[in-house]
Amino acid sequence: MPLRLAAALFSLVLTCLAATAAPAADEKGIGDFPKLNAQTDWPWWRGPSRNGVATDAPVPTKFGDGENMLWKAAVPGRGHSSPTVVGNRIYLTTAYEKEERHAVLALDRATGKELWQVDVNKGAFPENNHAKNTEATPTIACDGERLFATFYHHDHVAAVALDLDGNILWKKKVAAFRPKKYEYGYAPSPLIYQGTVIIASEYDGESFITALDRKTGKQAWRSKRLPLMSFSSPVVGNVAGKDQLLISGQEFVASYDPHSGKPNWATKGTTFATCGTMVWEGDTVFASGGFPKSETIAIRADGSNTVLWSNNQKLYEQSLLVHDGYLYGLNGNGVLFCWHGETGKEQWKQRLSGPVSASPVLAGGNIYWANEAGTMYVFRPNPEKFELVAENTIGKSAFASPAICGGQIFLRVGDGEGPGRQEWLYCFGLTKTASKP
After folding, report:
1. What is the pLDDT of residue 417?
2. Using one digit for the tens of pLDDT, what is the confidence trace for 118-128?
3. How far apart are CA 40 and CA 32, in angstroms?
4. Which pLDDT belongs to residue 432?
5. What is the pLDDT of residue 419?
């Protein structure tokens, strides 16, 4: 689609009003969910704060098979979804590709033992998918009472809600979904906001961001997007004095009102397709993409369309991390950058090893970031210089991002290829005999 036509279409989208629904609560963030604990739970994609920032609780920096390992559990099927950790349980999605079966499973947090597994769909997997994607890539979101998962099958994006014991509460067809030009599957994780669960479905057809009522699955609002393929998960951040639903891709960085789906603003930036989830600090938002061009960008989120800076670095599958005024990005080639958040000045760069698909987590004063080969780099968020703390290798492939909470690291990795591939979930924590990180 020509860029001029895309811009015109997006301008049309911004003039459309979405159906509205009353917000469920006035509180913000995890405060809406009294059964969740920000210190010990990792309830959805990118953690309690939705930006990859965990607590300061000490966690190991050196870990692997036999080192600071609390347990290791085999994960059936295949998927790139990250662990969702709430209370004494861990929740994952998985896909049995040969059988064309989607499932949700729960594991015991203390031992890794499988507690239950529930099939939520059988049949009608898409014919094609990207080599780096799976049929179970979106991460489960949990409100402390229910689990929300999304899958692509039967030519639509489907949402399912389960209770914490695996009983299906409702299933909904969110939107038709059948990419034609780019048959790369589906990836966005569901987003819980107050009384709704928000789901993106963007492809070369009718594309939307849709909010469903958490209790019933009934549509609360829907906001139209361009008919262009993109993969980023929407996120809500309190930016420039209000909650904003943020998403990149389709040649724009955009903001919506998460209560109603009404557009706030859209600024041209990033590229056609993005995968990473946006981050923010103060009144500035950051995004990066992808395909076909590369751009990392900082935008003032006050509706002024002010681009503070941009560069030509590409973080396509992975997300960024911002901390104390500085932005950290590990590009697809394995080069780590530190930029000044307001000016874009490059503080330093360090060659590590790529390619990279997983997103980072800041925990215990360090940043944890894995490449696809299973190497987990641990480094300090120091704008003055690169400080490597540790380098660990777990498994042969790492596409899922870690969950870090309650002094524990949960990491989904894979070993082997093809039919012989086996996925594992590791739990790491400081053992009694281990030294401090």
Report:
1. 79
2. 999 999 999 99
3. 16
4. 60
5. 74
- Going from the C-alpha of 145 to that of each of 11, 84, 154, 168, 188, the distances in angstroms are 39, 13, 28, 12, 22
Low-confidence ranges of the chain (pLDDT < 70): 1-29, 432-437
**Reduced DSSP (H G I as helix, E B as strand, rest coil) percent helix, strand, coil of the chain, to 5:** 5, 45, 50
SS3 assignment for 116-152: EEEEEEECCCCCCCCCCCCCCCCCCEECCCEEEEEEE
What pLDDT does residue 25 have?
Answer: 28
CA distance 140 to 138: 7
Alpha-carbon distance 175 to 199, whole Å? Answer: 10
**pTM value surpassing 0.90:** yes
pLDDT digits (tens, 9 = 90+) for 207-233: 999 999 999 999 999 999 999 999 999
What values do phi and psi take at 168, rounded to 5?
Answer: -75, 125
Per the CB < 8 A criterion, the answer to whether 309 and 298 are in contact is: yes
Q: Which residues does 89 contact at the CB level (< 8 Å), separation at least 6?
A: 106, 107, 108, 109, 115, 164
> How many CA atoms, within 13 angstroms, populate the side-chain half-sphere of residue 328?
27
Q: In the beta sheet, which residues pair with residue 95?
A: 78, 102
Tokens representing residue 238 in the block: 């309190």
* Chain centroid, CA 93 distance in Å: 14
Q: What is the sign of the dihedral through the CA atoms of 230, 193, 370 and 424?
A: negative
Neighbouring CB atoms inside 10 A of 292's CB total: 8
At 381, list the tokens.
């968020």
Residue 392 burial class via C-beta count within 10 angstroms: exposed 0-12, middle 13-18, buried 19 and up: buried
The tokens describing 107, both together, are 């594991």
